[in-house]
C-alpha cells in the first residue's frame, strides 16, 4: 500500500482544471498499481481536494479501480464538520488505512492538536464504526502539535494507551 495525498487546493477552491489534473494522474497511476499489486491510499487531508466528504467522494468517482482507496484521517474530516456515520456509509470498502489524531479549532480557524481522547473526533464512535465496517487495516496514530514536538515519545505513548482503551472497549454502544 502506498499512502499519498491528492494535493492542494482545498476542495472549496478546486476548479475543473484541478480535478482534470487529478484524473490525468489517476489514469497513469492506476494501471501501474494494478500491474504491481499496490493499493493507492489517498489521504483525507486538510487544505487538499479530499478535505471534505464531497471532495473525497469525487476523487473515488474519478478512480475506476478498487486499487484506489483512502487513508482516512478522521480528525481532518471532523475539522470540516463531517459526521462519522455518514463517512462510513459513503466510504465503506474504500478505507485502506487510517490516521488517528484529535484536536479542536480555534476562534481564528487554526487547528489545535490534543490527546486522542480530547477534541472534535469521538474515537469511541470511530472504533465502533470501524468494527461494524469490518475494517482490518492499520490504525495509525498521528501525533501533532506543540506537546508532540516537545515530548514526542511521551505523547505517542499516551495516545497509544488511549487507543488501546478504545480497542478494549471495542467501541461498544
Task: Please explain how this structure is put together.
The strands form two sheets. Strands 1-2-3-4-7 form a five-stranded parallel beta sheet. It has helices spanning 16-36, 53-62, 74-79, 84-91, 123-132, 146-150, 152-169, and strands at 2-4, 40-43, 68-73, 95-100, 102-105, 111-114, 140-141. The protein is an alpha/beta fold and 173 residues long. The protein is built from seven helices and seven strands, in the order βαβαβααβββαβαα. Helix content is 45%, strand content 17%. The protein has one domain (2-169): Alpha-Beta Barrel (TIM Barrel). The protein starts with a strand and ends with a helix. Strand 2, helix 2 (53-62) and strand 3 (68-73) form a beta-alpha-beta unit.
User: How would you write the strand order of the largest sheet?
Assistant: 1-2-3-4-7
Number of helices: 7
**What name does the CATH topology carry?**
TIM Barrel
Structural class: alpha/beta
The proportion of strand residues reads 15-25%
Oligomer: single chain
Radius of gyration: 16 Å
Q: Shape, please?
A: globular
Report the end-to-end length measured between terminal Cα atoms: 32 Å
Helical residues, percent: 40-55%
- Gross CATH architecture: Alpha-Beta Barrel
Strand and helix order: EHEHEHHEEEHEHH
